[in-house]
Amino acid sequence: MEFTQLSREQLRTLQISLSAQYEAFRQANLNLDLTRGKPAPAQLDLSNELDGILDGFYLLQDGTDVRNYGGILGIPEARQLAATFLEVDTDEVLVGGNSSLTLMFAYIDHMLPVWRQELVGSKDAKIKFICPVPGYDRHFTICEHFDIEMLNVPLLDGGPDMDQVEALIKQDPLIKGIWCVPKYSNPTGHTYNDAVVDRIARLAEIAGEHFTILWDNAYAVHHLSDTPDVLKNLMAEAKRQGNERSVVMLGSTSKITFAGAGIAFLAAEPNNLKAFEKYLSASVIGFDKVNQLRHVRFLKDAEHIAAHMVKHRNIIQPKFDLTLQILSEHLQGKGIASWSQPRGGYFISLDTLPGLASEVIQHAAAIGVKLTPAGATFPYGLDPQNSNIRIAPTFPTMDSLQRALEVLVVCLQLATVNQFLSD
Questions:
Q1: Which of 220, 218, 226, 297 is nearest to 259 (CA)?
Q2: The CA-based dihedral angle spanning residues 49, 52, 58, 59, taken in that order and rounded to the nearest 10 degrees
Q3: Which domains does the chain have, with CATH numbers?
Q4: What CA–CA distance (Å, rounded) separates 1 from 336?
Q5: φ, ψ (nearest 5 deg) of residue 264
Q6: Is 146 exposed, middle or buried (CB count within 10 Å of its CB: 0-12, 13-18, 19+)?
Q7: pTM here?
């Protein structure tokens, strides 16, 4: 029954029951963590073959010794692997170190002088970015670091609200970019539909030549279904429209092989890539080519990557299933929460009634269950509704995950009952 249909007496009875459950959890001295979307140790073990895979053979097909200096764009074999991953041409790809976040940060720093030239004469003006929300907190941190103003746009089931995106860009020439996690978005798990991809590919026609689409395809191969989502190729569509210079695509193997020792990719139109290479040359002689070669030997091609990701799925899908089962069993039909049901990626997005997320998270923390801070999925850490909670099921064991989720649903119901009784 929905909570709104309960009498005050029924709500008080429920409050007493939930408070008793909460106190029992307190007595259990829990220490559980659902804050970050990290691979579990069993997932990392899937790539242990990386250690020693080169077996003393460090030469590329062209005879280059990867132990030596040089090659900012990455070794040819790794660029080909990355091109397959991102569905672009090999000459459009740079392969870096273990973090795509580093490449995003560097690319924005590289573009800042260009964007700032367009601020000349605009008093107190700021560069601005569009941020679909809820979204990825690290994107927002980069913008804050560079003092880029962030503009929220709702992330719908099929992608950002493009009517709002286009309206904002038309009225404000200082908007220079948009963040996108287009497949199995962080944290909702939604994949952009074809119509949204087409409209994003056209944004440069509204915004101007230096507008940049940061297409962070972090979960491109992280499926949780036998019928995975299909994402339309943004670069191909942008080329068709003559807007390829607006596209910067990113990805990595961070949740495919070793999270702390993978390889990252950036794809851009060749002239843009050349300019970015020149920017990097002041601080980079070359990324870790030995690790790039290790990954080429281990991952090989798209077919081998797909087979490897099935192994990942076998480990984490039961955790997603358990999470959705517990949410459904305890919250379904009560009118107090809604949640995404992702077909891939690393997160589940849970929404409480307005004003309750921070209280739920505080209740859980007080008895030993850490959740991602309220507001983390919004720019500046400010969720206007104070309702979104990001759940990261992948790292804990099944037993720990179940216990943490049982705490979460009790805290959510208790916070909601308390709010109802205080009205």
A1: 218
A2: -40
A3: 3-30+306-422 (3.90.1150.10), 56-302 (3.40.640.10)
A4: 11
A5: -120, 155
A6: middle
A7: 0.96
Confidence of residue 301 (pLDDT cuts 50, 70, 90): very high
Residue 34 neighbours by CB under 8 Å, 6+ apart: 369, 370, 371, 372, 391, 392, 393, 396, 401, 404, 408
How far is the C-alpha of 72 from the C-alpha of 92, rounded, in Å?
Answer: 13
Residue 132 one-letter amino acid:
P
pLDDT in tens, 151-198: 999 999 999 999 999 999 999 999 999 999 999 999 999 999 999 999
